[in-house]
Specification:
With 315 residues, the chain is an alpha/beta fold. The protein contains eleven helices and twelve strands. The protein binds NADP nicotinamide-adenine-dinucleotide phosphate.
């Protein structure tokens, strides 16, 4: 499979999101994880809060059945959202206790990567540095990253954190791509020109931080999947044409659109169906042309600022 770099690791361009593992049995999870590994998808994304922590427990059940699977995979988890979902917490104590919990539930001695799930308004970078230092020194976490973080928040962390920040996990899909659109509409009096993330895409490319993309098939804030959705007729038409051309599904084309970006992002899948995972992984075999990439971008509702729209045309 096509790979991307995360720090000094070379990992699959498509990673397996495990947020919904709480909805399946350990037996089904076992089948799913083994199928993923057989297909070369050996990077698994978790968070302490997914499914009220049950998602990690179910995954840990798979490793309890066969501990030898651990060496064949990368496991990433996240912390920083309190279980009660009533506060963010990136205090030293919370980070350390969260990782202990994840290791226990996942049945592993170490995480390959730990991400700070969401930035805590009360975060003190010195406290994060203390927690990261301990976890790294104890061999419990090999590499560190963030999620939903702005460049300034990353720089603030880096003032004290000595380990490299290797990942920023962000929401990105054809139907939700402000970090890409903003660079195209710069200085225009349109909504897409508003910089909602502090130029995070360019910042991460400059600092060798791999962007992992969550919800790659969804629109809005987890409003649903845009594939075959009636609000996205033009996007689905173009996805369908390209799916036919490359002999893959529309899912694969939507993911290939993310992988085509030269930032070399890693896309997370979220399905729990083995067939759909297989469809998704085919994205790694598709290299969209520049014209196709832009055609999809426009079909998703982004009018390129090269010609005025009909209602803006001057006579
Ligand atoms: N850092 C963060 O803040 C954050 C937030 C959200 C998620 N995440 C991570 O990102 C991962 C992926 O996010 P996501 O679950 O929102 O991803 P997604 O791939 O955009 O959505 C997956 C959902 O879409 C459904 N689906 C419907 N049609 C589909 C099709 N044709 N192909 C594939 N899936 C289809 C899946 O259902 P079926 O299972 O029935 O296929 C599943 O419920 C999560 O598992 C989690 O690890 C991170």
């Amino acid at each position: 499979m096509k790979t991307v770099k995360i720090g000094d690791m070379s990992v699959p361009a498509l990673a397996v999101g495990c947020r919904r593992f709480n909805n399946i049995s350990v037996e089904d999870a076992d089948k799913y994880v083994r199928a993923a590994l057989d297909m070369g998808a050996n990077y698994f994304d978790h968070a302490d809060v997914y499914g009220g922590s049950l998602s990690e427990t179910v995954f840990g059940g798979v490793l309890a059945i066969d501990p030898s699977l651990r060496d064949k995979m990368y496991i990433q988890s996240k912390c920083g959202i309190r279980k009660a979902m009533n506060a963010f917490d990136l205090s030293t104590e919370y980070i350390l206790s969260s990782v202990e919990g994840s290791l226990k539930r996942l049945n592993t001695d170490y995480l390959d990567v730990l991400l700070l799930h969401r930035m805590d308004a009360l975060m003190d970078p010195e406290e994060v540095a203390e927690a990261f230092g301990k976890l790294h020194q104890q061999g419990k976490v090999r590499a560190f990253g963030v999620s939903n973080a702005t460049p300034m928040q990353i720089l603030l962390l880096k003032k004290h954190v000595t380990q490299p920040i290797v990942i920023n996990q962000m929401q990105l899909s054809l139907a939700h791509c402000p970090m890409i659109a903003q660079g195209i509409y710069t200085n225009m009096d349109v909504k897409s020109a508003i910089d909602t993330d502090g130029s995070v895409l360019d910042f991460c490319r400059l600092h060798d931080i791999t962007i992992q993309t969550w919800a790659p098939l969804q629109f809005g804030y987890q409003k649903g999947v845009f594939l075959d959705h009636p609000d996205f007729p033009e996007l689905n038409r173009v996805l369908g044409e390209l799916a036919e051309k490359y002999a893959v599904t529309k899912t694969a084309i939507a993911l290939a659109w993310i992988l085509r970006h030269p930032a070399k992002m890693q896309a997370l899948t979220g399905t729990l169906k083995i067939g759909r995972l297989e469809d998704s992984l085919k994205a790694a075999e598709v290299e969209l042309t520049r014209d196709e990439w832009y055609e999809l971008f426009e079909a998703a509702g982004n009018h390129l600022p090269v010609n005025p729209q009909p209602n803006q045309a001057r006579s």
